[in-house]
Design a protein that fits this description.
Gyrase A, domain 2; Cyclophilin; 13 strands; elongated
């Protein structure tokens, strides 16, 4: 069993029916493991009135129904729903520190890099004074942690892009980027889950569908997953696309 270091945390109210638990200041895999552990603990042992738990880079947002939480106040000296929920989470955090181990869900994402599928690949290479082939190599040779899902339904924020291919967002975002497009923004990389505007540098495209509203579980990826990008040919891309 792998034990975490002591957790530093701050509770911040978010309106009258939500709060944010800030876990440490750094953005790191160790901190995010604590985020995931807290999310899973609250989902497994929810308090009365819990509505939703949303993981972030280094924080957890918790939405609750103050009326249902108010029932707990009858046996407590605490005065507000915020205080009741905060007190419950403080107790939960003592369990979050015990075991930081977690089996990672590893998902391989095939990507066709360059040409019309990755119109910014050449720019990323030029910006970093390297070649498109090197950009592809650096982007696809490592595993990425899904820190959080956001921006659009199913869009994964992946940290840890190699500094040698890190590239700023576009000064002028595109009005539409196709679903499946793989982009770089600073030291982050991500995959557009639906057609949407965006300013990330697009270096490739995946034929894998990340969001399907008709499914019971509409998003393919979840916070805490590990992503591996695999370069593929155009023929492979079209084949996977057809099967999808």
């Amino acid at each position: 069993m792998k034990y975490c270091n002591k957790i530093n945390y701050i509770f911040k109210p978010l309106g009258d029916s939500a709060l944010i638990v800030q876990l440490d200041d750094a953005i790191s895999e160790a901190t995010h493991t604590k985020v995931i552990n807290l999310v899973k603990l609250l989902e497994t042992k929810p308090f009365p009135g819990l509505i939703e738990v949303i993981p972030g880079y280094n924080n957890v947002t918790i939405h609750y129904d103050p009326i249902n939480v108010y029932g707990l106040m009858q046996t407590s000296n605490l005065a507000t729903a915020f205080e009741i929920v905060s007190d419950y989470i403080k107790f939960s955090l003592t369990n979050v520190t015990k075991d930081c181990s977690k089996d990672k869900n590893i998902i391989e994402i095939p990507v066709l890099y360059g040409d019309e599928y990755g119109p910014d690949l050449e720019y990323v290479a030029k910006y970093n004074k390297t070649t498109p082939e090197t950009v592809i190599e650096f982007h696809s040779k490592k595993d990425y942690l899904v820190y959080m899902i956001g921006f659009t339904p199913g869009f994964p924020y992946l940290g840890g892009v190699d500094k040698r291919i890190s590239t700023p967002r576009k000064a002028q975002p595109r009005l539409q980027i196709k679903a499946g497009s793989v982009g770089i923004a600073g030291e982050q990389t991500g995959i557009y889950s639906i057609d949407s505007p965006g300013g990330w540098q697009i270096i490739g495209k995946s034929p894998v569908k990340l969001f399907a509203a008709e499914k019971e579980h509409p998003t393919l990826l979840q916070s805490g997953d590990i992503i591996r990008f695999t370069p593929i040919s155009k023929a492979e891309y079209l084949s996977i696309k057809e099967q999808s």
